[in-house]
Design a protein that fits this description.
20 strands; 5-stranded antiparallel sheet
Length: about 650
């Protein structure tokens, strides 16, 4: 929550004066369904039975279907598809709260930094373009000629060439008056590993492939402390939707690896929020956007006259990119590669886009080609004709289900009926379901009736599951069922620690009744320890509420999900009628379980080290003693809490 241009006190006032039910009811019809919560049809995904819940007491919302959740600010962000700051501005205007102007010192400082970075990136693009059209760019120009890319297209997309020098771009930006601080923050440079001034944040965001490429200058160049990230590569400036250069991608001119490297995240560039070519495609008169994977695919399509093409900068379409697409057009065509990775990415993209309200179709590339290759071999006219025959969403889903059910030329009917009936059950329109049920029946070699019967059974089952109201059960092992995503080293969190914080936020009295102290070391290292520290500080002041906890998680992601949504889910499942005594008991048991899990992790690490026998005799004996101490602590904690 640090570094926002609006003071936290004003954000809190905006939240307090915008009662969540009154705001949500402007978009959703709510009906009372439980003692504390209001329910309605979710505005963020299609459903027949209400699973969207709003808690007036906790001032949060959560959908048990699509798992969106948060406080009133998050609702406004999701419903209006606007940024955090824009949501606060809208809510502030509703209740006549005056927000700080751009005269705010920290805000102005941030804006000034962004302007300098935009300017430096623009100058870098000029440098790369000059290299491309100059003597040193002959090899890159030959590469583009072989790929049938015209000079006018090169200029339109601002393509360039990074020469094979350690300090080519660095010297150029220095000659233009840019400071080392600004130069490094562009993300276009690296520092020697032994340079103590290296920025951990930016370095950590580099991909592994980028680190492999950017070996340090040799010893004879010891005077070089900062060097160019991109060398001997064809360069692609990445523009934001306003046409400002925010980052770069670079491609090798031969078959060496890595083929592509990209800018790391910077103060003006966050991966997954931009679409390559969108600054041009948004002006297209076409009624849809065509989404491809890479730079060259998008460029080739624009050159062929398909000016509504954008690239997702990789195979995984993000929610932010889908939101950008939906704000521009209701219709989208996915034209990813036809290989296995491309098909998987297409299915993920379909789900994300449909959840955002897009009507999606799929362009299946013949013979496993990508759009760039197809255009070069068959011409622009045939490709444009191909786009008109894009496969409707349901057709592609069933087509994919059929492919998944064919292994080694053997058709698995059981697998296919399972995939297909799930696809049909997710279709809200009954007429569409029956139309496609006949397709499924034909593939299975049966009549349509059993297909429809099985589909209806799955729909009823899903409806029954959605109808079940969330119930708080005060047992040590009961935690948030929705927190099931794979834990990563970068954003690790356990179910126990997430729900523990949700319990703490349910009543200001709980923290004071627990045995002190709550130690941060028993939370997952990194982000969760920071989040827990902030939550506990609020709890000490009796200021930790469900809404405040959601706010703490606003700008973070753990376990591949928004932390604010995980907190909203957990908080919604803590019943408001549960006694403080029972809530304290469960919070205590969860905290003990957190300790046990941490000790068990440490025990596993030491055990593995002993098995490998890599230590000397003295160290081995010390580790055995430590292992015994940890085992005793685990036994003591289990006996104390009754946990097995």
């Amino acid at each position: 929550m640090q570094g926002r241009p609006i003071p936290e006190s004003i954000i809190e006032e905006v939240k307090q004066r915008n009662e969540i039910v009154s705001v949500v009811e402007q978009y959703v019809r709510l009906e009372k369904k439980s003692a504390q919560n209001l329910f309605g049809l979710c505005p963020f995904h299609s459903e027949a039975t209400p699973s969207f819940s709003v808690s007036p007491g906790k001032q949060i919302y959560y959908c048990f279907g699509c798992h969106k959740g948060g406080d009133v600010i998050h609702f406004m962000m999701d419903i209006e598809k606007i940024s955090y700051i824009e949501a606060i501005k809208v809510l502030a205007e509703k209740v006549k709260i005056e927000l700080p102007t751009s005269n705010d010192h920290e805000y102005q400082k941030k804006v000034d930094l962004q302007k300098k970075l935009y300017s430096a990136n623009t100058e870098a693009a000029r440098y790369f373009y000059k290299n491309l059209i100059g003597p040193q760019g002959a090899g890159a120009r030959d590469y583009l000629k072989n790929r049938s890319i015209d000079p006018s297209t090169v200029k339109r997309f601002g393509m360039g060439y990074a020469v094979d020098e350690w300090e080519g771009l660095y010297r150029h930006l220095k000659s233009k008056g840019y400071s080392d601080d600004i130069i490094f923050l562009t993300g276009l440079f690296k520092k020697r590993a032994n340079n103590q001034k290296i920025s951990r944040d930016i370095t950590a965001s580099n991909s592994q492939s980028a680190r492999t490429h950017s070996e340090e200058p040799p010893a004879e160049n010891s005077s070089i402390s900062m060097y160019d990230l991109f060398r001997n590569r064809l360069m692609f400036p990445i523009f934001d939707y306003l046409g400002r250069i925010v980052a770069f991608g670079g491609r090798v001119l031969d078959d060496s690896l890595p083929k592509y490297i990209n800018s790391p995240e910077t103060p003006i560039y966050i991966k997954g929020r931009h679409l390559y070519g969108f600054h041009i495609a948004k002006s297209s008169k076409a009624k849809n956007l065509i989404i491809v994977e890479g730079y060259m695919d998008a460029i080739a399509m624009h050159q062929a006259g398909v000016d509504n093409a954008v690239a997702s900068l990789g195979t995984a379409l993000t929610e932010q990119q889908a939101m950008l697409i939906r704000k521009h057009s209701e219709n989208a065509i996915i034209a990813y590669d036809s290989d296995a990775a491309g098909q998987n990415a297409t299915l993920r993209g379909l789900e994300i886009l449909t959840k955002k309200g897009c009507k999606v179709s799929v362009l299946c590339m013949p013979e496993g080609k990508d759009p760039d290759e197809y255009i070069r071999r068959n011409g622009a006219e045939r490709f444009i004709a191909l786009t008109k025959d894009a496969m409707p969403l349901m057709d592609y889903k069933l087509f994919s289900a059929y492919n998944l059910s064919n292994k080694e030329s053997t058709f698995d009917r059981i697998a296919y009926q399972d995939y297909a009936c799930n696809i049909l059950a997710a279709q809200e329109n009954r007429i569409v379901r029956e139309l496609y049920a006949s397709v499924v029946a034909e593939k299975l070699g049966i009549s349509i009736d059993p297909v429809l019967a099985e589909t209806e059974r799955r729909i009823r089952q899903k409806s029954n599951d959605a109808d079940k109201a969330p119930v708080y059960t005060p047992q040590p092992h009961v935690v948030d069922d929705d927190i099931h995503y794979e834990i990563t080293e970068q954003s690790k969190a356990t179910k126990e620690e997430l729900y523990f914080l949700c319990l703490l936020s349910s009543d200001p009295k709980i923290y004071g009744l627990m045995e002190p102290p709550i130690e941060l070391s028993f939370f997952s290292p990194g982000l969760m320890q920071i989040i827990a520290s902030e939550a506990i500080d609020l709890a000490k002041e009796n200021k930790l509420t469900s809404s405040a906890l959601v706010e703490i998680g606003s700008e973070n992601v753990v376990n591949q999900r928004k932390l604010s949504e995980l907190f909203a889910s957990g908080c919604m499942k803590v019943g408001e009628d549960v006694s403080v005594k029972k809530a304290v008991e469960e919070a205590t048991n969860l905290y003990i379980k957190m300790k046990i899990l941490m000790y068990m992790d440490e025990k596993d690490k030491i055990t593995k080290q002993l098995i490998l026998k890599t230590d000397d005799l003295v160290t081995t004996e010390e580790k055995k003693k430590t292992l015994l101490l940890i085992s005793n602590k685990i036994s003591e904690l289990r006996n104390r809490s009754g946990l097995k």
